[in-house]
TrEMBL record:
A molecular function GO annotation: 4-hydroxythreonine-4-phosphate dehydrogenase activity
Keywords (A to Z) from UniProt: Metal-binding, NAD, Oxidoreductase
Top-tier EC class: oxidoreductase
Coiled-coil parts of chain: none
Protein name (record): 4-hydroxythreonine-4-phosphate dehydrogenase PdxA
Record bears the keyword NAD: yes
Lineage of the organism: Bacteria, Bacillati, Bacillota, Clostridia, Eubacteriales
InterPro entries: PdxA_fam
């Protein structure tokens, strides 16, 4: 890539949600061009709708394909002509919109693999809509892995104010968490976390591990996972050059994480980390698809159907996600040069 700034695609997400208006606001104030060469991806009618809702205006070039967009200087839209806003119902789950969301993500993977773009930051999706639209995956992360042909060592990480969270288990019922925790899964999460932290420029990450049980198991009297599984996995990680601290009870872990400036936290299940991070700063929580060949990020919040179409959505989380995507893409570029 000859551009100093990375080329980042910006799919507009669920057209019935706040995605189009977020993208329009950030295109209008120049934010997208500040950190990368942005290429908005989707139907021009959706972008124009986003402009009307956000009450903003800006100029952009309309390209018929990604190669034309990459060659053009300045803000560009690849017009897919794939979603007619005349039939769009704001705030309503739709299989048509869900198919559009999935199609654009698959497009981005293809563009990344062709070397046309260096990553993408997508506006909020709706998983139920995507499933109705034919993309029947637990989340977009499994969709990405499927289309990349990756079967392991990938997953979701969340970032808030510089603190990264990786989970050993994710989208499974709480009653199944304990039986899905083992040394191999913990090592996978730890390795993925370390590799991703280094990918954003942290050479020696400080990573803490959460206990599973109340009070960290109380020396085995309130559960033995810490003794039988978590601590042996931590010892193995140290042997492999990934020293960890903990395991700490989850009710105090994030107090320490924010006060002591840890770089990352490995949690045992979804809400163990999500509740703490979103409570601390919901307006700045970013989701990163870790372990994939290219930089892929999105806001951790959803489509906000309740406020979609009102023009009142905030853009702070998308801003954080976009900056992380750009930083990861630049780091990936430097690694390839080496």
């Amino acid at each position: 890539m000859v551009n100093e700034k990375p080329i980042i695609a910006v799919p507009m997400g669920d057209a019935a949600g706040i995605g189009p208006e977020i993208v329009a606001k950030l295109a209008a104030n120049g934010f997208l061009e500040r950190y990368a060469k942005p290429i908005i991806l989707g139907d021009q009618r959706v972008l124009e709708l986003g402009k009307r809702i956000a009450k903003v205006d800006f100029d952009y070039h309309v390209a018929t394909d990604m190669r034309e967009a990459v060659a053009h200087d300045g803000l560009t839209l690849v017009d897919t002509q794939s979603l007619d806003t005349a039939d769009l119902k704001i705030g309503v789950i739709s299989g048509v919109n869900g198919k559009e969301q999935g199609d654009r993500l698959v497009d981005c993977i293809g563009y990344c693999n062709e070397g046309l773009i260096e990553g993408f930051c997508f506006a909020p999706l709706n998983k139920a809509a995507m499933k109705k639209g034919g993309y029947d995956f637990p989340s977009e992360h499994e969709l990405f892995a499927h289309y990349y042909g990756i079967k392991e060592h990938y997953g979701e990480m969340n970032v808030m104010e510089g603190l990264w969270n990786i989970r050993v288990t994710s989208h499974i019922p709480l009653c199944e968490v304990s039986k899905n925790i083992n040394e191999e899964r913990i090592m996978d999460a730890v390795t993925l976390g370390y590799n991703t932290l280094k990918r954003v420029g942290i050479d020696q990450p400080v990573v803490a591990v959460a206990a599973l049980n109340p009070h960290g198991g109380d020396n085995g009297t309130c559960g033995r996972e810490e003794i039988d599984i978590i601590q042996p996995a931590m010892a193995l990680a140290k042997e492999k050059g990934m020293p960890l601290i903990g395991p700490f009870p989850s009710d105090t872990l994030f107090i320490r994480a924010f006060n002591e400036k840890f770089d990352g936290v490995v949690t045992m299940y979804h809400d163990q980390g999500q509740i703490a991070i979103k409570l601390k700063g919901f307006a700045h929580c970013v989701t990163v698809s870790a372990g994939l060949p290219h930089a892929i990020t999105t806001p951790a919040h959803g489509t906000a159907y309740d406020i979609a179409g009102k023009g009142i959505c905030k853009t702070s989380t998308f801003e954080d996600a976009y900056k992380i995507a750009a930083k990861m893409a630049i780091t990936d570029r430097s690694i390839k040069v080496r």
